[in-house]
Specification:
Layout (H helix, E strand, L loop, with lengths): L2 H4 L4 E4 L1 H6 L3 H5 L6 H22 L3 E4 L2 H8 L5 H8 L2 E2 L4 H14 L3 H12 L4 E3 L9 H8 L1 H8 L3
Parallel strand pairs: 1-2, 1-4, 2-3
Length: 160
C-alpha cells in the first residue's frame, strides 16, 4: 500500500496474524533470507511492521474487531496482549446486524463463523481496511469474489 493511499484511510483493523508477526521483526529486520519461504516470511513480517508503524504515525483510527477471538489467540504471549490493548483502544464488537450479515457470509460466501464475524463487524462499523494475511480462509479469492459480487451485495442490503 502506498503512503499516499494510506492517508485516505480513516479506520483500519488488523487480523490476529498481522499482530503475531510483530515480535519477529528483530529476527527478520537484518536477515538476508535463505530460500523462497524465508524470503516470503520476511516480506510479510516487515509489511506487518510497516503497516502498524504507518497507522500509528498517521493517527489512523485503528479499531479492534473480533476481540474475544483475537484475545484468545494472543493470550499465550505476555508481550503481545498488552501491545494489542494499547494499539486497539476502541473496542468494536459484533452487534445484531453484524451477526445477521455474518450468517450470510457463512451461507453464501463459505466463510467460517469467526472469519465471517470479523468481516461483518468491519462492514457494519464502516471500517475502511481489514488487513489480514489469511489467504486460506478469510482472504481467499473465492470468498472475496462472492462478497464483492453485485448480486451478493443486493442480498446483503436486504438483511436489515
Amino acid at each position: 500500500m502506498a503512503f499516499d493511499q494510506l492517508r485516505k484511510i480513516q479506520s483500519l483493523t488488523l487480523d490476529t496474524n498481522v499482530l503475531l508477526d510483530l515480535p519477529e521483526v528483530p529476527k527478520y529486520k537484518d536477515l538476508e533470507p535463505q530460500g523462497e519461504n524465508e524470503k516470503a516470511r520476511r516480506e510479510r513480517v516487515m509489511d506487518s511492521y510497516m503497516v502498524a508503524i504507518l497507522c500509528l504515525s498517521q493517527n489512523i483510527k485503528i479499531r479492534k474487531i473480533g476481540m474475544k477471538i483475537v484475545e484468545k489467540e494472543l493470550a499465550n504471549s505476555r508481550d503481545l496482549l498488552p501491545i494489542f490493548y494499547s494499539i486497539f483502544p476502541e473496542p468494536v464488537k459484533p452487534d445484531r446486524r453484524a451477526k445477521k450479515l455474518a450468517d450470510l457470509y457463512v451461507s453464501n460466501a463459505g466463510l467460517q463463523v469467526p472469519d465471517a464475524l470479523i468481516v461483518a463487524t468491519a462492514a457494519t462499523n464502516n471500517v475502511d481496511v481489514l488487513l489480514t494475511w489469511n489467504r486460506k480462509d478469510l482472504a481467499k479469492d473465492t470468498a472475496r469474489q462472492k462478497i464483492e459480487d453485485p448480486s451478493f451485495a443486493k442480498l446483503c442490503i436486504t438483511f436489515q
